[in-house]
Amino acid sequence: MAHFDKNKILIFIPTYNERDNVKPLIKAIEKEGIGNSKILFIDDNSPDGTGKILDTLSKKDSNLLVLHRKGKLGIGSAHLQAIRWAYNNDYEKLITMDCDFTHNPAYIKKMLELSDKYDLIITSRYLRKDSLKSWSKSRKTMTYIGHFFTKTFLRMSYDASGAYRLYNLKKISKKVFDLVKSSSYSFFFESLYFINLNHYRIKEIANALPSRARGQSKMKLSDIVTNMFFLLNLFIQTLINRKKYLIQDNLH
Known about the structure:
CATH architecture: Alpha-Beta Complex
Structural class: alpha/beta
Family: Belongs to the glycosyltransferase 2 family.
CATH class: Alpha Beta
Number of domains: 1
Low-confidence stretches: none
Keywords: Glycosyltransferase, Transferase
Protein name: Glycosyltransferase 2-like domain-containing protein
Oligomer: single chain
Shape: globular
GO molecular function, one term: dolichyl-phosphate beta-D-mannosyltransferase activity
Order of helices and strands: EHEHEHEHEHEHHEH
InterPro entries: DPM1-like, Glyco_trans_2-like, Nucleotide-diphossugar_trans
């Protein structure tokens, strides 16, 4: 059985109106036997009281950490805050996942087992033909359009919009994330783009996703449109000055 060093692994989960999901998800993660890790929640002042529930749970479980923000500041900004928090607190491996059970905790061990060989591990929706079988046609279409854009303009064949990842913070320079500008869903392909551009080792593993296991999706059509414009601007900026996105002191 693989051994993972105590207090070196951080699992990050952003929350907004997830009161029905947090407790079952914590139990599901703990069931995987990664008991030597910490779970960090960042809550954006959820109107449904998610933050208060997390505070209550954290008082009973020292492995739970909770940060509160004043309002809904964007999914990308939550991930950036968690990444910086992990660096500042000397964590070596950071796993990021959603709270709605679209990301099965059963993949955590597999990612950790691969984490010494790779700098970033991504769970991908595109490695299995049936991974999106429960999704609606409209959502599948939008997902494939987004994937086409990242392949065409950013030259990345990876699943660039997924949040279920493992970052090897021992290998990825913190300066990579200083390049990230997006505070919204664009964070996912933007951060991946900079990691890829700086030649870090990236590994994908297959992941079957339900549309959303519990609760309502928070992504809007306006988010998708904004993402497309952000992606095109990133493409143009790279054409103008690619060197500004290259980190000179890569650790690998």
